[in-house]
Write a structure and sequence with these properties.
The protein has 187 residues and is an alpha+beta fold. It contains six helices and eight strands. 32% of the residues lie in helices and 30% in strands.
């Protein structure tokens, strides 16, 4: 049985140590630099992204010793304006929803299928003052779709399932980025 530790991060100074020394910067890139995302994030981008999670929402990390092996973040949906505008006419009482912004686990086989994502999700569910969430993922990301469905999300079909943006990849490629939206409701 693993002795992973799950901690909530509420302080940017504490977060900074995990970004650099705990490997959160490296882990985030491991999660998002491979297809279908093909992204690379500089350390200052990670500080900005995760800093927002600390100040505007809830952030949990999963640690193996001092090494970050998982993360999850959520904040009020209305703070993610682009997503809010897309889904607002497709959900009842949309202002009670939170945005399930990020989830990731280390791709090393020793950390897979250990319940890390589920435990992180349960930590968010127990901390957030609602049980209504919206998430999005790339249409072609079968692993992410499968995980969200296992966690109890449903595809938000009335949004036509996808939207298209023109994201610029680190190698200056411009490609359509099709996303699906998912929602979670537990009363």
């Amino acid at each position: 049985m693993s002795n992973f530790q799950y901690i909530q991060i509420e302080d940017k100074d504490i977060l900074s140590g995990y970004i650099k020394d705990g490997g959160l910067h490296e882990l985030y890139n491991l999660c998002f630099n491979a297809p279908p995302y093909n992204e690379y994030f500089e350390i200052n981008e990670i500080r900005r992204i995760f800093g927002k999670y600390c100040t505007d929402g809830i952030l949990y990390l999963c640690l193996d010793g001092k090494k970050v092996i998982g993360f999850i973040a959520a904040f009020p949906l209305k703070l993610e304006e682009k997503v809010y505008q897309i889904v607002k006419n497709h959900l009842v009482d949309v202002d009670k929803y939170w945005y399930h912004a990020d989830i990731g686990t280390h791709p090393d086989p020793e950390y897979r299928r250990k319940g890390i994502a589920k435990t992180l999700w349960n930590a968010i569910l127990n901390k957030v003052p609602t049980s209504h969430f919206v998430a999005r993922t790339q249409e072609g990301n079968e692993a992410s779709k499968s995980l969200h469905l296992k966690l109890g999300f449903q595809i938000l079909a009335h949004v036509d399932g996808t939207f298209v943006t023109q994201d610029v990849h680190r190698d200056d490629r411009h490609e359509p980025d099709k996303r699906i939206f998912l929602y979670y409701e537990r009363d």
